[in-house]
Write a structure and sequence with these properties.
The chain is α+β, with helices and mostly antiparallel strands. It contains two helices and 13 strands. The N terminus and C terminus are likely disordered. Keywords: Signal.
Amino acid sequence: MRFSVLFLFALPAAIDALQCYSGRLAPGNPQPGIDPTCKDYCFSIPFVYGSANGLDMGCGTDDKCTSEGLNDQGYTCCRGDLCNGAAGAVKCYDGIFKKDSEAKNTVNCPSGFCYKVHVDVGTQEGSKKGCATADQCSSEGKNKETGGYCCKGDLCNAASGRTLLLTMMLAAIAMRR
């Protein structure tokens, strides 16, 4: 009977646990482990060792993560099982801009999804861009709930939809020649 009582008390803690990739992703170590006991956040942080680039990943403790996104210590924090997966990590433009050409700030995005949504910037229409969590963007394309756009790929949230479509069409025509 003691074991069943202990099991019932341990079960909610296991259900609330978050799974995060944990360890170092670098050349020669392509697959980090998985830590199934994280609390609130997962993190990733880029590193350079010699000529190799990689990511350190793990559970986001209170000293590393207090909210989602890139923090001032360089950690990219996220919520959601295995959201810090480096295989899909991309760079996203991040911030609020009156014109797409103003976008300069970037953030590393372990979820692999960037977003762009139209917002009012003063009296003009602009856009808000950034890294989306896996919960916010489960696939590419227009998000019906937010009216925003989710995309995968480095800096895919750079241009307006029309500019992006035109660029893709011109590239396809150029490849045919």
